[in-house]
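Re: weekly structure request thread

Next one in the queue (160 aa):
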Amino acid sequence: MTRDEQAVWDVAATVVDPEVPVLTIEDLGVLRRVSIDDTQVTVDITPTYSGCPAIDAMRDDIVSALSAAGYAEVRVRQVLAPAWTTDWMSSEGRAKLEEFGIAPPAPHNSDGSVNLGLGIRCPHCGSLHTRQLSRFGSTSCKALHVCQRCQEPFDYFKAH
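Done, posted below.
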């Protein structure tokens, strides 16, 4: 990445996810690429899933942030391949989710093996004694769980 592209990336990386405002699009792994062609800046983003209703707000916020930073011609492209995965989330993003009260997804193993988890860890008390209440939580990318120990409900950011 050139210095100019890094400057564009740094501005775009400040945009927050409108559905989970403690995460930036960089934390979430949605920000994928930036390029500069003459005077036009292009930013590639990949939605967490193809029907994500927040993608339009993210696009508008990226254009606003870059316009405010002095970039006159901004184009945001939605890139669907490769499909977004929770592996693209940063470790800082996972920590921010948990601090916010949302159980973060565990990263996949680099060898392709699958962890057989005992349960989703409660972000409030740390207990693994939790259960799913609904496959869909406050947004489609999250599931609603409840902790059997502290009795607190919480969202779990679904792994994909």
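The beta strands are 31-37, 40-45, 73-78, 102-103, 130-134, 142-147, 153-157. The mean pLDDT is 91.
Next request, please.
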